[in-house]
Specification:
Bound molecules: tryptophanyl-5'AMP
Protein name: Tryptophan--tRNA ligase
CATH superfamily of the largest domain: HUPs
GO cellular component, one term: cytosol
Strand order of the largest sheet: 1-2-3
Oligomer: single chain
CATH class of the largest domain: Alpha Beta
Helix content: 40-55%
Catalytic activity: tRNA(Trp) + L-tryptophan + ATP = L-tryptophyl-tRNA(Trp) + AMP + diphosphate + H(+)
CATH architecture of the largest domain: 3-Layer(aba) Sandwich
Number of helices: 13
Organism: Candidatus Uhrbacteria bacterium CG22_combo_CG10-13_8_21_14_all_47_17
Structural class: mainly alpha
Strand content: 5-15%
Radius of gyration: 21 Å
Pfam families: tRNA-synt_1b
Shape: globular
Order of helices and strands: EHEHHEHHHHEHEHHHHH
């Protein structure tokens, strides 16, 4: 069986360098070797309140970002989750397989529900079930994500196995694909916190849309430690190790090579080099986002095509699932 890759990003806020390193950069490499589906998961986005006009704009913005990051629509399918209704149908069915006790253990649910001032939606609670549906619908066996999605992915595996045991072999068991270094990019202001799209502190994150002077400022202001040596040790030196991870992914140098490049030099020199490497990596993407965003007919065409390809596979799978579960009529 050919490997099938599925992944998605929520079209909320602007994407940052953590999303790029853990997801988009991996995706762009995978598309040359595998059959890939890259989804814009707008149904996940509405599990917390969204402004409808902004959400629609963010969906197209996300599509432009995918393309600008090198995701090639001739090699893979790029589409919008809500345009393939089978995702929600399968999510309902899988919701009868997953258990409340399993959902209650999800750390992302616990964290996100604390931030809701208007009450916690049932959708936020069942969010991981929809994510399982996204993946299982396509029999994806490889799912490139950051570390924060590992628990959700583990639940998707549990649900797939349970369904297969109850109704017969139906779903492929997915495997996570995680970057060895950089699966969890931390905030530039607090190395104990992951870099997050929704963090209101602008200086905590580098956005894909940041101009060079902003990137320089954010990196020069990033917290470090008092030791003054560029050395990789995530336990003892989390802030510097996080910056080294960014440098590793943007310069192509190994962690050892970075240590020897900056041996005997201070954090100032290191940060200057890091800023230039990040700018060199992200500037072409920022410029392309603009040009894809302004060519809306091309974006529409790519999203239509992606939807049609996804829909064909999803419809076939749902027919089998309904049959297995005994829904409707023969
Ligand atoms: P989302 O939109 O929060 O994040 C998109 C991707 O970026 C990764 N990520 C990070 N990686 C490293 N360091 C960080 N600080 C960081 N922040 C975010 C995430 O792990 C993710 O890979 N539930 C998912 C979207 C989703 C999905 C799916 C993913 C829905 N269905 C099916 C894979 C397969 C989410 O909210 O990602």
């Amino acid at each position: 069986m050919k490997d099938l890759v599925f992944s998605g990003i929520q079209p909320t806020h602007e994407l940052h360098i953590g999303n790029y390193i853990a997801a988009l950069k991996q995706w762009a490499e995978l598309q040359h070797k595998k059959c890939c589906f890259f989804c814009i998961v707008d149904l996940h986005a509405i599990t917390v309140p969204q402004d409808p006009k902004k959400l629609r704009a963010n969906i197209l913005e996300a599509a432009a970002v995918y393309l600008a990051a090198g995701i090639d629509p001739t090699k893979c399918s790029i589409y919008i989750q809500s345009e393939v209704a089978e995702h929600t149908e399968l999510a309902w069915i899988l919701g009868t397989i997953g258990k409340v006790s399993e959902l209650e253990r999800m750390t992302q649910f616990k964290d996100k529900s604390k931030k809701q001032t208007q009450g916690v939606s049932a959708g936020l609670f069942t969010y991981p079930i929809l994510m399982a549906a996204d993946i299982l619908l396509y029999d994806a066996n490889q799912v490139p994500v950051g570390e924060d999605q590992m628990q959700h992915l583990e639940l998707a595996r549990v649900i797939a196995r349970r369904f297969n045991e109850r109704f017969g072999e139906t779903f492929t068991i997915p495997q996570p694909l995680i970057q060895k270094v950089g699966a969890r990019i931390m905030s530039l202001q607090d190395p104990e916190k992951k870099m997050s799209k929704s963090d209101p502190a602008e200086s905590s994150k580098i956005l894909l849309s940041d101009k060079p002077e902003i990137i320089r400022k954010k990196i020069m202001r990033a917290v470090t430690d008092t030791e003054g040596s560029v050395h990789f040790d995530p336990e003892k030196k989390p802030a510097v190790s996080n910056l080294m991870t960014l440098y590793h992914h943007t310069s192509g140098l190994s962690l050892k090579e970075i240590e020897s490049e900056f041996k005997g030099k201070g954090y100032g020199d290191f940060k200057k080099a890091l800023a230039e490497a990040v700018i060199a990596e992200l500037s072409p993407i920022r410029e392309k986002i603009e040009s894809y965003r302004s060519n809306s007919s091309e974006l529409e065409r790519i999203l239509d095509e992606g939807r049609d390809t996804a829909k064909e596979i999803a419809a076939r799978k749902m027919k089998l699932v309904r049959e297995r579960v005994g829904l409707g009529r023969a």
